[in-house]
Design a protein that fits this description.
Elements lengths: L35 E3 L5 E7 L23 E7 L1 E9 L26 H24 L9 H4 L5 H7 L1 H5 L14 H12 L2 H4 L6 E5 L1 H12 L4 H9 L4 E3 L2 E5 L1 H9 L8 E5 L3 E5 L8 E6 L4 E14 L5 E4 L1
Parallel strand pairs: 1-9, 5-7
Antiparallel strand pairs: 2-3, 4-11, 5-8, 6-7, 8-12, 9-11, 10-11
Helix pairs in contact: 1-9, 5-7, 7-8
Length: 327
């Protein structure tokens, strides 16, 4: 029996269009707000630290006006917050002839993308990008960066530059092989060495108030070590994993974005670790939510939608005695 309806359609079938844009997932390393946040930094903030005072309790012998014990130094450090800017724009003609055009507005407002699926995706992607970039800048920013990635890193100096530049901290560093020489078992060796090299002041900080921040190679190799113990705990780690990983009671936190930063900046010492009291790392900013400091507006003259964000960001560390590094 013949079909009652016959195909006389000239349009080519290209498949159904799902009405959602999928963002590439991003990994978000340790949130900066867990560290010491110094608000209302406009550009330069002078920080003052006091050394520990000891040996002031002494035996009483006789009436005296003399002082007991030692003195302590008041030191200063400068936190310089870079002036950050985010500027992106979008014209809707980029997506003429695609299914996204179906979501555009009508008539005189056709060029205004506010409230469309495309604009929602752009805004979310910008927020994600800011949250990822500020962490990368905080650790690997370098105002002297002049390579192809200079624009991504030269707005402020990050913790790695500041820590390595400090003579006391760098003299106490732990040597860790780079990715070309890193071998199985090196992670546990590095963590033990960081622990042994840590000043007593750092060891005296509560375990929940400090952490090991490590490159992915160290983290993955340490997991392998835990999984290879040949006991029930090792088997459980291999099969189930854990939400958090610890070394001697201190959390070990993988910093996946360090690999991105070292690759972009062509840094050869690309396997690194920091054992530090969290409150020893200071973040200076004029906002507590950089990714929320955005505004969006449509301009009739250029027929584009613009997204802008402005904020200040800078970092510093306070005490040599509360940090040890490895690279």
């Amino acid at each position: 029996m013949a079909n009652v309806a016959t195909d006389n359609i000239g349009a080519t079938y290209s498949g159904a269009n799902f009405n959602e844009l999928f963002l590439e997932p991003i990994f978000r390393d340790s949130d900066l707000m867990q560290f010491r946040v110094i608000p209302n930094v406009k550009h330069v903030m002078n920080l003052y630290t006091a050394d520990a005072l000891s040996c002031i309790v002494q035996k009483y012998t006789t009436c005296s006006s003399s002082d007991t014990g030692e003195t302590f130094n008041v030191n200063d450090k400068v936190l310089t917050a870079g002036r950050m800017r985010v500027a992106v724009s979008q014209c809707q003609d980029e997506f003429f002839g695609t299914y996204l055009e179906e979501s555009f507005r009508n008539g005189i407002n056709v060029f205004n993308l506010e409230g469309t699926a495309l604009m929602d995706t752009i805004l979310q992607n910008v927020r994600n990008g800011i949250s990822r970039d500020v962490v990368r800048l905080a650790w690997f920013g370098d105002t002297a960066e002049a390579g192809s990635s200079a624009a991504c890193y030269n707005s402020t100096d990050g913790w790695w530059k500041l820590l390595i530049a400090d003579a006391v901290v760098d003299a106490n560093k732990v040597a860790i092989a780079n990715s070309g020489a890193f071998a199985t078992g090196d992670a546990i060796v590095a963590l033990r060495a960081l622990w042994a090299a840590a000043p007593s002041a750092l060891q005296g900080v509560g375990n929940n108030e400090k952490a090991f921040y490590v490159s992915r190679l160290i983290y993955d190799d340490y997991l392998t070590t835990l999984e290879s113990q040949g006991n029930a705990e090792g088997q459980r780690q291999l099969v189930d994993g854990t939400i958090r990983t610890y070394f001697r009671g201190v959390e070990v936190i993988p910093m996946y974005d360090w690999d991105v930063a070292t690759a972009q900046r062509l840094i050869t010492d690309n396997v690194r670790a920091v054992y530090v009291a969290k409150q020893n790392l200071a973040v200076g900013t004029d906002t507590n939510d950089p990714e929320g400091e955005m505004k969006m507006f449509y301009d009739d003259l250029t027929e584009k939608v613009y997204v802008r964000a402005y904020f200040k960001l800078g970092v510093q560390f306070l005490h040599d005695s509360l940090v040890v590094i490895g690279y």
